[in-house]
Amino acid sequence: MLLLLIFTHGYLFAQQATITGVVKSAPDNLGMPGVSVRLKGTVIATSTDANGNFSIKIPAKAGILEFTSVGYKVQEVAVAKTTTLNITLQEDASTLSDVVVVGYGTTRKQDLTGSVAVVGVKDFQKGSISTPEQMLSGKVSGVAITSNSGQPGSGSTIRIRGGSSLNASNDPLFVIDGVPLESGGVSGASNPLSFINPNDIETFTVLKDASAAAIYGARASNGVIIITTKKGLGDALKVTFNSVNSVSKLTKQLDVLSADEIRAIVNSKGTSAQKALLGTFNTNWQDLIYQDGFSSDNNISISGGIKKLPYRLSLGYQNQTGVLRTDQLEKTSAALVFNPRFFDNHLKLDVNLKGSMQKTRFANTSAIGGAVSFDPTQATYTNRSVYNGYWEWLTNSGTDLVNLVGRNPVGLLEQREDRSKPMRSIGNVQLDYSFHFLPELHANLNAAYDVATGKGTVYVDPNAAESFLSKGVNNQYKTNRRNTVLDFYLNYVKEFKSIKSRVDATAGYSYNDYLTTQYYYPSFDAYGTKVVNSDPAFAFNKPQYRLISYFGRLNYNYDERFLLTATVRRDGSSRFGPAYKYGVFPSVALAWTVNNESFLKDVKAITALKLRASYGVTGQQDGIDNYGYLSTYGLSSLNAQYQFGNTFYQMYRPSAYIANIKWEETATANIGLDFGLFDNRVSGSLDFYQKKTSDLLNRIPQPAGTNFAATAVVNVGDMKNEGVELTLNFNPIKAKDFNWDFSFNATYNKNTITNLTVVPNDPNYAGFPSGTIAGGVGGQNAFINAVGGPKNTFNLFEQTYDQAGNPIEGVYVDQNGDGITSPSDFKKGKQADPKVFLGFSNNLSYKKWNLSFTLRANLGNYVYNNNFSQAGNLAQILGTSVILNGSPNYLATNFTAQQLLSDYYIQNASFLRMDNVNLGYSFGQLLKSKANLQLTASVQNVFVITKYKGLDPEVASGVDNNIYPRPRIFSLGLNLNY
User: Fold this and answer.
1) What is the pTM of this model?
2) Is residue 436 packed enough to be buried (19+ CB in 10 Å), middle (13-18) or exposed (0-12)?
3) If you count Cβ atoms within 10 Å of the first and of the last residue's Cβ in the chain, which end, N or C, has fewer?
4) β-strand 116-120 against 201-207: which pairing, if any?
5) What contacts 437, CB < 8 A, 6 or more positions away?
6) Given this model, what pLDDT does residue 95 score?
7) Do 230 and 176 contact (CB within 8 A), yes or no?
8) Apex 100 CA angle, 96 and 104, nearest 5
9) Do 337 and 311 contact (CB within 8 A), yes or no?
10) What is the pLDDT of residues 93-136, one digit of tens each?
């Protein structure tokens, strides 16, 4: 296909004129990269390279070239016989040409009334990037992105302004080129966003308040992130090749006792039988399960135009091995874009097709916990063939496994193959028609799909100790998803100069259908023998739901001073009963462009100044069952049959249901200030917000005889988030050979639960626990979600200390004075979620060199160190039938038993992390000015400053146990444009 495109271009442009030149900015006279150069009235276009140079082929006859760049005035130049142009663009202080992608269309930046942030290619995180959200981390105030682990392709926990739910989803809605993505993952993939190639992304647009997000109604309570991918330019053939090769290294292992320390403890406090169990080896199990990871990420894109058909084709291939042995991700992606224009640009057609296929081997992460608890005095292998030669704990017989103990961590990794081959494709065809008789009116039709197949197999060797008694494992899984979208809307934009007004009105319809097919299979051992009574009750299940919506939006601008935005959306969801099927989600926003007032027009120091205020309601339906309003019956498994006579029957049993279940609703008020000073050398925004969520879903007890379960999920709660966001951008130096710009963002968020019961503030309801603690017997929880406090508040016993400051084992403050230690003595304490998020980005360029870095900080967050609480005691080492390793924290406390519910293990996890540092060098134009080469070197996860005593302070759940470590990544990159 590449050869065909090259030959086609050679034929089409053989008789055309080539215009070359350079575009610079005034007044610094610097070359400007990324300037759009377009032959006016056509689709023939190109863009300038890193030094501002361009080359464009146009028909031999004269025409007009149009030069546009965000923040600069549009310049048009007539081309006659001239073949070389030197263009200087003037800054547009009001940035009237800026266009921002919003829900169902675009709007001018100066018409925005809501809290919206846009992050482009220039500001993305750099280095080895496997999932899109990593590029956004630390870049936007109010947006917290926490990587879930260091596993290849792993997902992130994303929260916009603190999240709005307790039991439903807190994830934002993602919209990719007009296609809303369903929440939830794809079977066999650790992150649903990993199917999107980061190299194809042009911009992220984050809609934070209700004015900006209410156009998405019932799916917008947690904010909206719109991803816009790169398009074709319609000029001569342009080929871009990008390669990033990386090495990942662990910077730290979890602290455990050494083999000599274990021997000393056992010899000092163990029985003679326990002493006899000690080995003679000094094994660091973490050294054996971890490795240096390697990643190669290669991408090629081809863009241009054939007559009136601009296109872009991109291909990507990534192969990444994790720092945990046997972990591997192989990903192939492709994207094809066509965006032709017809009928003198009255009809615009955009075709976006994206597909990705992954081949993954998931490492057995149980080996992580095993490596920190397995006896370090034992060998890795034996000279026997039993259990494939791995050392295991055996009974006195010398052949039988000891029950209920951990297995060899290396054996856990090497004898299990968990492989998957998920595939996903997202695409849409969008037509925008501007009526000839009324060009201000546009009709837009968007037909889209999102299909995915997730399938895989899990195989465990029949001789592996992990599954020896069941003769191994050989199972499979498969899930298909098919989501379809149809949107249609009319958009009318008209300026009424006589009354100094501009109207931008949109009205439309949206249809979304979500269908999942979940297949069920019996279980098999490694030899292919079906496990008895493992046949599923059904071969498959096809849960499905639909969302049908009507929406409208009005933007009104009076005299470029006063702005009004009004939005309304009516959603109907099949997830709710007839009386609650529809919801209405309105919003209204006002803005005052103060710098356009006469009393400020002569104040040259103020480039931009806008006051904003908004209020709106958004909804939440993700995380709610499809049929929760209906009484459903489930067929029991073969292991749960009922006997009548001599025959056993599978029985149907009813599930709990709530007929009046409905959406969670979030009402958001926002007051904001946007400003620019000294020709935008200093700019930023300040926002104050309040989010009140009502009808929160909470699991509460049901009165006896009123339902088919003791508890049910009901709309009963209320919660509030209040906060402040600040963004500051600086460009202190802007000279010919040297440029320096940096940005800072800060977010403060306070979360408060205001109600959780049918009868508000019921004194008999203490709240519901969360945050599972590993270890012990029975479910132990670190958090309480209770009225008057934030979600995920620590609720544990208050530890007492001796005069030397050491914790006293089993002795806690008697909060109620009854002389008994009981859950009544739990004390609410710190919160797991940060109170403050900070981000800092810096960019320096000198001639052909560029240096950038990103810093990120969380303040006010605490983590329960479950590794200390579970393993920092003598019982961990000597309390079972075998010897286990323990945490060095035992040497500090001398605890004999686990004290899982002590607040001693709550630790300050505030941190400062350098996410990325990147150094680049541009060689400029090569091959007779036809190519441009840039080399980069980067380091990710450069350092972390924290008081936390565990492996990593950034724990999304707030309870630290069995975490897949985040490595430090060293990368070398090459970018070649031709």
Assistant:
1) 0.88
2) exposed
3) N
4) antiparallel
5) none
6) 44
7) no
8) 130
9) yes
10) 444 347 888 989 888 888 899 999 999 888 888 887 888 888 88
742-778 in b/e form (b: 16+ CB < 10 A) is bbbbbbbbebebbbbbeeeeeeebbbbbbbebbeeee
CA atoms within a 13 Å half-sphere pointing along the CA-CB vector of 220: 32
Rounded distance between C-alpha atoms, residue 184 and residue 657, angstroms: 23
| Rounded distance between C-alpha atoms, residue 317 and residue 86, angstroms | 39
Q: What radius of gyration, in Å, describes the C-alpha atoms of the chain? A: 31
d(CA 401, CA 403): 6
For 397, the token pair is 């017989």
| Contact between 503 and 496 (Cβ < 8 Å) | yes
Structure confidence by residue, pLDDT tens digits, 399-409: 899 999 999 99
Sheet with 63-68, side-by-side order of all strands: 45-47, 36-39, 63-68, 75-79
Tokens 């260091």 correspond to what residue?
Answer: 150
User: What are the structure tokens assigned to 676, written together?
Assistant: 């620019």
The span from the CA of 760 to the CA of 754, in Å, is: 9
Spell out, as residue ranges, where the chain has pLDDT lower than 70.
1-15, 27-29, 50, 61-62, 70-71, 81-82, 91-97, 235
| Cα–Cα distance list, 494 to 208, 345, 858, 891, 901 (Å) | 27, 18, 46, 75, 65
Report the DSSP pairing between strands 201-207 and 224-229: antiparallel
Distance CA 623, CA 625 (A): 6
Q: Kind and range of the H or E element at 537?
A: none
- Unique residue bearing structure tokens 């104050």: 688
Q: What's residue 3's pLDDT?
A: 40
Name beta bridge partners: 715.
697
Residues 6+ apart with CB under 8 A from 780: 772, 773, 900, 901
Look at residues 849, 892, 846 and name the one whose alpha carbon lies nearest to residue 873: 892
619/584 Cα distance (integer angstroms): 9
Block residue for tokens 């039991």: 167
* Closest of 816, 833, 820, 797 to residue 905, by C-alpha: 797
Name residue 228's amino acid: T
Of 406, 149, 264, 283, which Cα lies nearest the Cα of 888? 264
- CA 10, 934, 849: angle at the middle one, nearest 5? 140
**C-alpha count within 13 angstroms, C-beta hemisphere, residue 721:** 30
Contact criterion met (CB below 8 Å) for 911 and 946: yes
Longest dimension (CA), the chain: 100
Q: What is the pLDDT of residue 15?
A: 55
